[in-house]
Amino acid sequence: MELIVLGGGPAYTNRPGASGAAYLVRHGGKSILLDLGQGSFPALASRIEPSTLRAVLVSHLHPDHFIDLVSLRHYLRFEFRPPRRVRVLGPAGLGDRIDALHAEPGFSAASLDIERLTPGALRLGSFRVTAGLVTHTDESYAFRVATSADRPGLVYSGDCGRAADLLPLVRPGDTLLSEISFGAGPVPKGAQHLDGPAVGGLAAEAGAGRVLLTHIQMGYDQEAALAAVRARFNGPVDFVAPGLTSEV
Q1: pLDDT (tens digit, 9 = 90+) per residue, 205-214?
Q2: Interacting residues of 112 by C-beta distance below 8 A, sequence separation 6+
Q3: pTM for this prediction
Q4: Under a CB-based contact definition with an 8 Å cutoff, are residues 172 and 206 in contact?
Q5: Which strand (E) or helix (H) includes residue 95?
Q6: What contacts 208, CB < 8 A, 6 or more positions away?
Q7: How far apart are CA 203 and CA 136, in angstroms?
Q8: Measured in whole angstroms, how far is the alpha carbon of residue 36 from the centre of its chain?
Q9: Residue 133: Cβ within 10 Å count
Q10: Of the candidates 42, 82, 109, 239, which lies 20 to 30 Å from 9 by C-alpha distance?
């Protein structure tokens, strides 16, 4: 299974090229996408034919995780005759949010087959996906993606305010792709995000094989964040960047 980072930026940043969250997972010539945040559609379209996506999974309804579904919708609607369609799974109200941007009921349904996510397991072709609720918005999800029951998988935190919410998803040896919005910490009171000590403690307790860090806020030092994770977790730890390709 291959992970391709299309974007991993937060809601705003001064880091050039840091588009919104978007993580492409490929196996056997098939692809699924975890989130599609602002500015990430061009990176998707440069990697694969977007209409061939098995599905897009949206973690929660913040624009830096879903807003480029508008670009995907336009592409599917106007680039092909007849228009093509892509399956999208996300929290309740996703379609309504997109429609409201254009004050056009049915806007998203023109090319996106949007379905309500629920906690639990689902199959997307060869991908075994488990969705779990996490603390962030009223309905936010993390995902575990694997291709077999006996091989390590990828756990994507989405945005998460409580590391313990991710424990049921992470199996020994898994790659943990985790947000670390507030770097070495601490997380400001009321901000539902993670910092280095929380991520490192989670990875150690769960027996993760390695940690990939993403979604760091503007103004927070990456080296300090890495050190905070490594203080609690002895395995490999790195930040992702757009264009990173990694075997899982």
Answers
A1: 999 999 999 9
A2: 69, 72, 73, 76, 85, 86, 88, 95, 98
A3: 0.97
A4: yes
A5: helix 94-101
A6: 155, 170, 172, 173, 174, 175, 176, 202, 233, 235
A7: 19
A8: 8
A9: 15
A10: 109
